[in-house]
## 1
Amino acid sequence: MLNRREILACLSVQPLARAAAPIPTGAKPVSHGRINAGEGPVWHPRGVLYFSGRNRITQRDAAGNVSVYRENAGSNGLLIDRQGRLTVCEARSRRVTRTDSGSATTVLADVFRGRRFNSPNDLTIDSQGRIYFSDPRYGARSSMEMRDSSGHLVEGVYRIDAPGQVARIISHEVDRPNGLLVSPKDEYLYVADNNNDTVGGARKLWRFPLLNDGSIDSAGRELIFDWLEGRGPDGLEMDQAGRLFVAAGRNRPNPPFESADRYQGGVYILSPAGDLIDFVAIPVDEVTNCAFGGTDWKTLFITAGGELWSIPTTSPGWVPYPRDRPI
């Protein structure tokens, strides 16, 4: 297998200008074991990392102690909202919920125009507290209900303005939306387009201008990065320097759908313009998602194949609430 330097050379990494390297010199990812860390990591300011896997939500405290937060969750993406509440894409139940500090659960979205969602996957939040979530369908498609006015199946992106108040903002502008990120100042919505179980499907990261009303400017869509025939982008985050950290790639091919020839499994660190700045190789498949955390927000946690990894970074992660004030 290629080492990190060889991978970066093959991928034509762009030189950094006026910014420190995103990963400290000599730093390597550390495994914290196979602790059901399959997806959706998110750090709560009180010092707890949550993640999804094996039909439960697990929590890991700052000392490394691991416990089950919720059994039978059927969850994927997780989010801490601006009030510190855990918001969950319950893929199995086809809904998005929110849990407050007292464990009361509120259903934020379970239907749109009378139809059940496909499998809510990932979510992000803007400065007004509006939540955006992706709704792809991986695997069997016979139970899909979501369609457009012409009767075509939709794997879309939705915005939640309040419980039960849902708008569809992306219908067919991407192939199969997965990871989402609203950038600082609500300027852009990044969408990971990952149709990884279809030969020739999209494996791309897009950026859409985000308008004041929470809709997108589809005409302003920009391609940020393309993983070609490899495993496409899944979850993504951004640091305080504006760099994107994207989980993608494979270490072993998944024929006939995904190649491992060029884009190996790990975290791809991109400039806002899509230049590849650095790459964090993770030796297990599949690398699904990442989240910043730690007391200084300079630890990147990575989920891959049920295993939790971490690596230090030079810049804190960007989150849509005060990092220095517990919520």
Note: Residues 1-5, 12-18 have pLDDT under 50 and may be disordered.
## 2
Amino acid sequence: MNHSIETKAAGGEIADAFDEFMTIFGAFREANDGRLAQIEKRMSADVLSTDKVDRLSSALDQQKRALDELTLKKARPHLGGAGATAASLEHKHAFEAYVRGGEDRSLRTLEQKAMSYGSGQDGGYLVPDEIETAIGARLRELSPIRSIATVRQVSGAVLKKPFAVNGPAVGWVGETAARPQTDTAALQELQFPTMELYAMPAATAALLEDSVVDLDAWITAEVETAFAEQEGAAFVNGAGVNKPRGFLDYGSVAEADWQWGSLGHIATGIDGTLPADDASDVLIDTIYALKSGYRQNANWVMNRRTQAAIRKLKDADGNYLWQPPATAGARALLMGFSVVEAEDMPDIGSEATPIAFGDFGRGYLVVDRAGVRILRDPYSAKPYVLFYVTKRVGGGVQDFDAIKLVKFAAA
């Protein structure tokens, strides 16, 4: 089956999956309307109605994950191609000889010629640019926070970024008037060190000896999910020790008392839950706690269990706050803003902050050190061959005013 036929087939599967998703959502909406009507009429819903809504909500989540998998599969980049240069082909052939049989003379010669930092003393050899690019592209699709954050690539171990806490000093002045001296900007230096992230896929001798197997695609597929899962956890909750620092690790203060260095939060007013009446008001307050310049590119971030709870809510006019994606591959909307599903966000609970809202492109910075390295190990797990694949990644909040949290607490 050629690539164009595969693409058409994948497109048909996605269309069918999206239709099924919308069918389930219609059934969920109908069942939830019935549940809410029972609560309004007799102050509670019967068990059967509640169970039906929960089952449909779970089915909706499962179908959304299946739809996302099909969309990601279709978006998987194809490695290689007619545009490859002689140098890249030479590197690719040398890399394949190393991966398949451990022959590293050609690869070592190429990296010595290029004076690469990724060889020898740093452990292993740089993968071809095509593989690094493919891994980076897939991580943007798979890693929820990376997909909405700013990503910078560096060649060193640490990115240092000065930041004006009080903003630039500006003012109005006449055409011929003297220019007054501006106030000194209050600067802070933000540091984003890169930490080593690794994956260790294993291969059999038969796999490596099979010339039909595309080893570039195999390596990319093996490490992309592992990298994305580890990144996702670190970008949300990482403590900054041997891993990036997650935005929830900075702590939060009430929005009225917000100060640089912490994120602002809006309390629900009730410990561990949303208010029974006008729950949408908390979300509205969160939206408008963010300055207008940040709201233009803002996203909600929460896990699927929190999203399932929010999905059942309506506004004062009886409209659902949560709306399904308009097309396959798009994101759901909550009050007009995209919802990014990050499984590492905490669940709803006492004093928890399970919902974030903000412009993560301005608020959170991901730092990638250029180069993905690989080390072949045929000894540690005989008869299997291990491949120790590493990349260096850092991250942290760069603008504390760009992200707000919803805290499920009394105050």
Note: The first strand starts at residue 125 and ends at 126.
## 3
Amino acid sequence: MGLKLAVCFFGMNRSLSHVVDSINKNIIEAIPEGIEYQIYGALMHTTVPFTNIRSEEFSCVPESNFENLMVPKSFELIEQSELDKVYKKPLMALGLNDIYSDDGASLMNMVREMYSVQTVWNLASESKPDYVLFLRPDLIYHDKVDFEKYFALIDQASGPMVITPSWQKWGGLNDRFGLANLSGAVIYGKRFDLFWKYVHLVGGYPQAEAILFTTLYLEGVDYSITANETASRVRAGGVTKVEDFSECGDYKNLESYLIEVGNRN
């Protein structure tokens, strides 16, 4: 049997109709011949319009075209209101710094994303893929992914590896998409569970990039390889956000801090 790739979509389907051509051209059609791939999805869903002040989205509804456009092997919708009922109170009880001053809305969005990642990984993990690509359905992908290069690097890994974007690290690791080997995907995929274990370490600045780095670092995942391919967020209605594709702050300070914490313990 040939090598297997699981393509795992997470997050919310804000704008798939606007970005699906870029997904097909730069991701699906870029998968090398001989690699067997399957598409999976676990996306947040809301039956009432949502508003996100930070992303300047007001009274928007998710698109409902994922199964038609991506034809997944397995797909699940996660009812956002039900998830919030279970996890918003425990999240707020952690007393994390509300760094965006939005009454915890950004913190809850982070939890929703990680839950979505974990749910799609649960769908895909049964197939025991050799490689796993985690990605969002609301990004327009500008560059053809060099899978052959990344697969070769992953094949050389002696342990778990996750490749993340080289841009917008914001002091941690970019969580917009990730390419992993199976053992790396196990860690990346269960970040939701590990969040509750590790978030106290970055409680003063709990943003997604810091959580991702902390999780991979403490779980012994190789995060040293980054991808230069870029993507831009496309908001509900089709507005593309202008992105900064520079590093935006590396993870060296956070890495040093975690090393220091480890030494103290």
Note: Residues 4-264 form a domain with the Spore Coat Polysaccharide Biosynthesis Protein SpsA; Chain A fold (CATH 3.90.550).
